[in-house]
């Protein structure tokens, strides 16, 4: 499996046109300001080393060891840049060879062994590994056997039929690779939600501390929790924009200032993320925030309403069309109210009927992060997580949860090496920990694999021992539509399955959604009282907003889960909540906002 870091890293590498260059740039900068955590930096480096080792035909155990260490470091709560050799080696999966490389990087800004591999393998070949459905091994074969050293050459070779003779590359593989190339190209200019959010929040913090800054927040697609972000829009209010503009364009790590105006500037960070800053007078705050939050189509509607009422709406305010007199502009509420509408939450501003519903005063009371009482899909280091059970539970308690489910992988995926004994031993530990935190109950569960025929791991007697079962598609993603539909329907009909995990199995920018008749699946979920997951991982966001809207029509329940593989990632739940909001869900729709007794009845209805 690939970790979150690798995804981020690969997208970034693709965008900035070369891993080596980006890291070389980076080695000379410090980590403060807009930069990813040092842990993510180091993890990206180890992941790259693993990929390059794999391309160069390195031993499989070594390839895996570096990959595992990358994930462990990415998910580790302590800052690696502050660790000495001994502390480093206490991180699970980090042995002497890996610790030495990390220390070398932290000391010198580079790793000689990695530089040697980079010299050996052309950058175009490294780009190939970022293509979904290809991966390092196949990339190596293509390079060695056919001399293919770039994405363009790959596409050409496929069209010329040159891959046909290579073992392991059938017509279906070719089609999948072309699809992967398409996905990569589409996602090159957009970033995942967490990358944008983390940098935006840091920047807003910094701008708020600049003298004269009266207000500052992010707007645009990020405020609407869109699934990927083209650029980050920051809005600030100040009497005098200059100091803010200077702080913005002079911050580290700006790769390029693409526009520097009096009221608007744009930069590109060394990560390749584009950020706009606009500074407005405080009196125009509401109108500007409404305008720059978008979406474009929502704004077209609000301007239309203004026009029909003899008004004019712009980023400067709402004006009388005839006299040009300012009507309102200070707050978003005033702007909406003057248009005859209540304030509309940003995730709903997509012109999907929100204006009409708002006008009738029937906007849903959408679910919020504070409504969430617990997380129902999480992993530990017993399978592919990196944090021990105790750390996951302690962090969950800090988040104020009323309940928390541990759902490690089931035996069907051999790489996780789950066994009956391990599951039962974990259950003992969960039962012992239950009650250790005031007010938080623990559920012992599992994430089952939905096999190609819809069957799941373990016989029913064994499954009945779990408090909760999530079931997900992890293999056979390319089944024909009818088979895939039958597979999901059968999983829903299994009385032991409570939640379908990441239901379409897509990875944003990397793997398309599975092909199934979603109407049929959602109808079955409603009938069998099986909840659909809204997986909060910013690489998944699955179900996505439009599928949620469809499922809701069938009366399905949902569970917003982090699918955290480390304690730090439990906080990622907010991206799932944002997605649920985009799907117009209320807390009534979401089972993990319910009190424990109601949740228990849903999971194990009295027979
Ligand atoms: P993105 O950046 O592609 O993820 O999506 P947005 O929605 O952040 O789009 P962006 O950054 O181009 O513009 C931010 C907001 O500013 C957008 O949602 C609505 C508003 N806006 C910008 N340009 C226009 C325009 O030409 N017409 C209208 N109606 N609104 C605009
Ligand atoms: Ca934007
Ligand atoms: Ca923009
Ligand atoms: Zn899963």
Automatic annotation (TrEMBL):
Entry-linked SMART domains: HhH1 (SM00278), POLIIIAc (SM00481), POLXc (SM00483)
Domain Polymerase/histidinol phosphatase N-terminal positions: 374-452
Pfam family, one: PHP
GO cellular component, one term: cytosol
Annotated signal sequence range: none
Cofactor: Mg(2+)
Alphabetical keyword list: DNA damage, DNA repair, DNA replication, DNA synthesis, DNA-directed DNA polymerase, Methylation, Nucleotidyltransferase, Sodium, Transferase, Ubl conjugation
UniProt entry tagged with the keyword DNA repair: yes
Domain Helix-hairpin-helix DNA-binding motif class: start-end pairs: 86-105, 126-145, 161-180
One MF term in the entry's GO annotations: zinc ion binding
Reactions listed under catalytic activity: a 5'-end 2'-deoxyribose-2'-deoxyribonucleotide-DNA = (2E,4S)-4-hydroxypenten-2-al-5-phosphate + a 5'-end 5'-phospho-2'-deoxyribonucleoside-DNA + H(+); DNA(n) + a 2'-deoxyribonucleoside 5'-triphosphate = DNA(n+1) + diphosphate; 2'-deoxyribonucleotide-(2'-deoxyribose 5'-phosphate)-2'-deoxyribonucleotide-DNA = a 3'-end 2'-deoxyribonucleotide-(2,3-dehydro-2,3-deoxyribose 5'-phosphate)-DNA + a 5'-end 5'-phospho-2'-deoxyribonucleoside-DNA + H(+)
GO aspect biological process, one term: DNA repair
InterPro entries: DNA-dir_DNA_pol_X, DNA_pol_lamdba_lyase_dom_sf, DNA_Pol_thumb_sf, DNA_pol_X_beta-like, HHH_MUS81, Hlx-hairpin-Hlx_DNA-bd_motif, NT_sf, PHP_dom
Domain DNA-directed DNA polymerase X: 37-350
EC annotation from Swiss-Prot or TrEMBL: 2.7.7.7, 4.2.99.18
Name of the featured protein: DNA polymerase beta
Organism of origin: Haloechinothrix alba
Lineage, uppermost ranks: Bacteria, Bacillati, Actinomycetota, Actinomycetes, Pseudonocardiales
